[in-house]
Inverse folding.
């Protein structure tokens, strides 16, 4: 018998391995609801558990046991996980992940990955249709941060071309966003050589939406100083409170002053599938970032940039100059994603997304998103009805910011400390996971609903857990 080649895995071995992996995954899902929401083990304990030298010889099937530990030391995204903006992970799409890796298509261009390129274009088209932006094209990417970087790179190349000679007009270019904008925007502006100082943070109103009159005032002042308005960034769901900027007005201002209009919809834009009326004006964007791994519940990673101009995308991302050449070959088969995105080698991200949409249908997603919106309002109502809690921001989408105030006698600075202790205590209790936000310089608890598993009872449990954690802390003090 011929000796096995190194690393060889027969199809039979592959099947056995995948069945074992699938069994571990299924067991994780089966126990999700009862599992502690964050493992109890410390960083040191987990590091110690896995620590081992680079293995000279393989453990074979023995390595499988350690996969169980990986699951055990992971956070459980059950129906009571409300931290950050983190999608709950849709298992039907996730089931295709192994096929994605086995097919190992490199989604650079049609000739390298015929089915994958076709399905990515289709999935992108579906996302555009679902969010009211039919006709936009785009690409899948690692997430909202990558999409924002690419959208603003397109803005820069459209309004102040710099790829060839560098950013010659540094300090003479500005971008505009609300004070509530996500950190990925200043990060992108820094990386693009515009300079973070040239991001104008425009104040927000009582609903955390950009004040458009202030925006116009700042743009006019800049114009007097010879500063070019490159891009206006609207948030379709701010990360803290879920506020949606007045998108239609921002689009009008962008047009008037010749700026690019980018919408950061990484958190909220996909909610347009269920509540299009909240997002009027989004379809006027030049570019729009979305995160199917947030509010379409897809496994990480799956971000998306939509835009109106494949030509500007090629001007921004094609290095060969090919974008100006007329393609003589068949347009579908000569298509290259690498001319329209920052990446060359790319994972087949569309597989899970396409499959998940095929499998469940958009109606199921629309219903899940509508439930998230309803659950957020439900929590806000429960907070309002509980004298020991205070609602800290209006609930426009699905982020609910609130805090514990108890009998109301604690001084303001003690409240921050108490709420931060409550948050830590809740994680320890292991039932509900929240994150935090600072609003009007107060430390708040924040529950964000982008979770297809949440039930009405889970929403009630948020209140119960906050009160229980606060009770434990207060009892320990006495
Ligand atoms: C999450 C988020 C981002 C960043 O998206 P990633 O997928 O985490 O890179 C950008 N903007 C907003 C509003 C977000 O909520």
């Amino acid at each position: 018998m011929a000796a096995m080649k190194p690393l060889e895995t027969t199809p039979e071995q592959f099947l056995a391995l995948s069945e074992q992996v699938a069994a571990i995954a299924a067991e994780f899902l089966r126990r999700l609801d009862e599992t502690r929401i964050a493992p109890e083990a410390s960083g040191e304990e987990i590091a110690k558990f896995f620590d081992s030298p680079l293995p000279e010889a393989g453990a074979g099937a023995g390595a499988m046991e350690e996969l169980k530990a990986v699951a055990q030391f992971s956070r459980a995204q059950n129906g009571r996980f409300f931290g950050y903006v983190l999608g709950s992970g849709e298992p039907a799409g996730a089931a295709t992940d192994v096929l994605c890796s086995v097919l190992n298509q490199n989604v650079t261009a049609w000739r390298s990955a015929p089915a994958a390129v076709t399905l990515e274009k289709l999935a992108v088209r579906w996302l555009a249709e679902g969010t009211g932006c039919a006709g936009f094209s785009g690409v899948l990417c690692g997430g909202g941060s990558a999409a924002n970087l690419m959208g603003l790179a397109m803005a820069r190349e459209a309004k102040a071309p710099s790829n060839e000679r560098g950013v010659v007009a540094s300090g003479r270019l500005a971008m505009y966003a609300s004070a509530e904008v996500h950190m990925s925007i200043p990060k992108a502006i820094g990386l693009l050589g515009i300079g973070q100082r040239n991001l104008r943070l425009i104040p927000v109103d009582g609903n955390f939406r950009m004040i458009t009159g202030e925006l116009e005032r700042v743009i006019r002042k800049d114009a007097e100083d010879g500063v070019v308005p490159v891009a206006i960034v609207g948030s379709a769901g701010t990360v803290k409170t879920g506020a949606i900027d007045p998108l239609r007005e921002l689009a009008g201002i962008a047009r008037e002053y010749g700026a690019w209009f980018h919408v950061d919809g990484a958190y909220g834009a996909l909610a347009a599938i269920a509540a299009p009326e909240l997002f009027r004006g989004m379809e006027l964007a030049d570019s729009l970032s979305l995160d199917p791994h947030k509010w379409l519940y897809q496994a990480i990673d799956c971000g998306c940039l939509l835009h109106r101009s494949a030509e500007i995308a090629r001007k921004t991302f094609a290095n060969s100059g090919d974008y100006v050449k007329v393609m003589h070959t068949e347009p579908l088969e000569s298509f290259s994603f690498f001319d329209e995105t920052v990446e060359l080698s790319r994972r087949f991200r569309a597989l899970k997304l396409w499959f998940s949409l095929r499998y469940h249908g958009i109606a199921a997603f629309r219903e899940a998103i509508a439930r998230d919106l309803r659950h957020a309002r439900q929590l806000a109502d429960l907070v309002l009805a509980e004298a020991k809690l205070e609602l800290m921001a209006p609930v426009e989408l699905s982020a609910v910011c609130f805090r514990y105030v108890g009998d109301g006698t604690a001084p303001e600075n003690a409240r921050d400390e108490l709420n931060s202790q409550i948050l830590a205590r809740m994680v320890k209790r292991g039932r509900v996971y929240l994150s935090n936000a600072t609003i009007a310089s107060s430390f708040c608890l924040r529950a964000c609903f982008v979770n297809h598993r949440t039930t009405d009872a889970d929403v009630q449990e948020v209140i119960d857990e906050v009160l229980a954690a606060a009770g434990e802390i207060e009892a320990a003090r006495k």
Observations:
- The pocket of pyridoxal-5'-phosphate is lined by residues 85, 143-145, 148, 182, 184, 235, 237, 239, 264, 266-267, 291, 303 (CB under 6 Å).
- The CA atoms of residues 21 and 64 lie 8 Å apart.
- The first helix runs from residue 11 to 30.
- The first strand starts at residue 137 and ends at 141.
